[in-house]
Fold each of these.
Amino acid sequence: MPTRGPNVTDEGTARGCARHTCCILAPNVDVEPGFDHLRGEWHLQWVPGDGAWFLAPPKGNVFEIRVAAGEDPVAALEVEGVKLDEVRRAVAGDSLFPPC
């Protein structure tokens, strides 16, 4: 069985998304108490021309994260109540960024 942290299931932490352009799939993201509606599959779409992430949770509205020039786009992946630490590590460690 693969080693995994507390934020993800055996489905893995992050991988290239086959459904969307410039997208990383985080198949099973965990959340803090009170944010249950955000638990599950996330799509992290990078728009290089805008220097922005568009994060699509399993339910609800898309989160937009603008990345300033010189800022680390992977480190900018942050949403209140959502445990994205392992996703950021996986994206950086598996060379998933930039996704296009």
Note: Residues 2 and 10 are 7 Å apart (CA to CA).
Amino acid sequence: MNAPTDAALMTHYHTNAHQVGAACEGVAYGLAGALGSALIAGRMARAERDAADADEWRAVAASVRAGRIEAARARQAEATRAEAARQTDDEQRLRILMLRARAAAA
């Protein structure tokens, strides 16, 4: 009889099963590696995008800060002009009073 023995069949079966298992394991590791690489690349892209967004927000904040500083300087300049105008007005009134006092005394 040329029928294969049970031991020969079991050995061949186990060898194939191990080979199939190893192949599946290799494919699983490959997929896991690809997925890990994709996740890492996604994280890196998100980090770069977040950094770019942060830079843009810093630029916006700097612009807002510059606008606030400019507005504060404009208010200060306006207050200085108003104070100078009040002082000039007070001096003018004092001169008028002095002239009236001289006219009344004369």
Note: Helices lie at 6-105.
Amino acid sequence: MPHLDIKYKSDVLQESDLETIADTLLGIVGKHFQENPDFVSLEIAPQHAVVRNRKHVDLELNSSPDPDGLRAEAAKALSDELAETVAAHLTDRGYNNLEVSAWVRIFDAGVYRYHRMGS
């Protein structure tokens, strides 16, 4: 399952500035990865208090590869569209001179385990 992690500088932006575009971003990931947006997870959180050399908004998408290799092929166009979409959205909300970065990582191998505790 692809996961989009969005970190923002809380002294400049508010969570609501990014929450309003969350579904659009899920749709963009779904389009590029040919995946149902309901199967893409998303988390929006402020950057930690001790952070250096980060942008005003950092988007990090992590995903396992797909059997056909389409996700790896789509990585550059996806990162461009994510960053440009967030930047345009924040400009429309009245923000200027902000920096937005987007990283797309496709992992060759990964392990996921789920364990339910209790009855």
Note: The chain has three helices and four strands.
